[in-house]
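Possible regression after last week's pipeline update?

I re-ran a chain I had predicted before the update to compare outputs. Posting the input and the new output here so someone can diff against the archived version. Not blocking, just want to make sure nothing changed silently.
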Amino acid sequence: MSMSTSFGALKQVEAGVLSVGYAEAGPADGPAVILLHGWPYDIHSFAEVTPLLASRGYRVIVPFVRGYGTTRFLSDTLRNGQQAAVAADVIALMDALGIQMAILAGFDWGARSANIVAALWPDRCKAQVSVSGYLIGSQAANAAPLPPAAEYTWWYMYYFATERGRAGYDTYRREFNTLIWQLASPKWAFDDATFARTAAAFDNPDHVAIVIHNYRWRLGLAAGEPQYDDLERRLAAAPAIAVPTITLEGDANGAPHADAGAYAGKFTGRYEHRLIEGGVGHNLPQEAPRAFAQAVIDADGY
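New output (post-update):
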């Protein structure tokens, strides 16, 4: 389970249904910040954010999401990618590490998990930074068709709904995810080495199953697990978030995302939205690490 990373030696901890692989930096007694990546990315989205925060005295935890890197399931259970399961992993990790409250910051799947923890476990979330705003969804909401131009941006989700899509992603996961990076961040000139550093995380034996289940679950094509039914019922109500929040958006985000005005009302506590300019795409913490780190610091001060 060894991986070469710019974080140095990774750690493992049993947390809930997983053995979670994670990087850690900063003083062990510092205020905790948990940085949460999305698809198709990994902990290296925060390779430059992490030392910026650690140097300010934060204890920075950067876990591999289930299905990525060195994170492994502890048993032969369903490889479940539904939103409640992925978010519950954050609570399990905090429990395993003895962290009562943390600042949560993420993008893509990671922003959704931060939103869910902030909404359902506000006593565990001091503040949050969420790229692209409010991302809590539900199968019912996802059943409503979008205008054709919006549906087009979700092409990969419909591809994953087919067996051909699952097989294609399994066979061409590096080529597929290179394309996603290019589409989601059209002005980010990443090099082969940068992509390869992250792509190693896609070799996780559960990666394809988790990704496919995540997107099929959203469309109601795959069932979740009953232990998350109550959480999903609560999430289906699109709960407001009172935790102090800064939302971020890159000015060149090529991935599907809502206008900031569409979700501002979901944040009922102290709230600020920031547009990060300069050709910044979907992988905002890696493309604009200083802006992301500053948002974490500022949200902590709210």
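Follow-up from reviewer: compared with the archived run. The chain is about 40% helix and 15% strand. Marking as no regression found.
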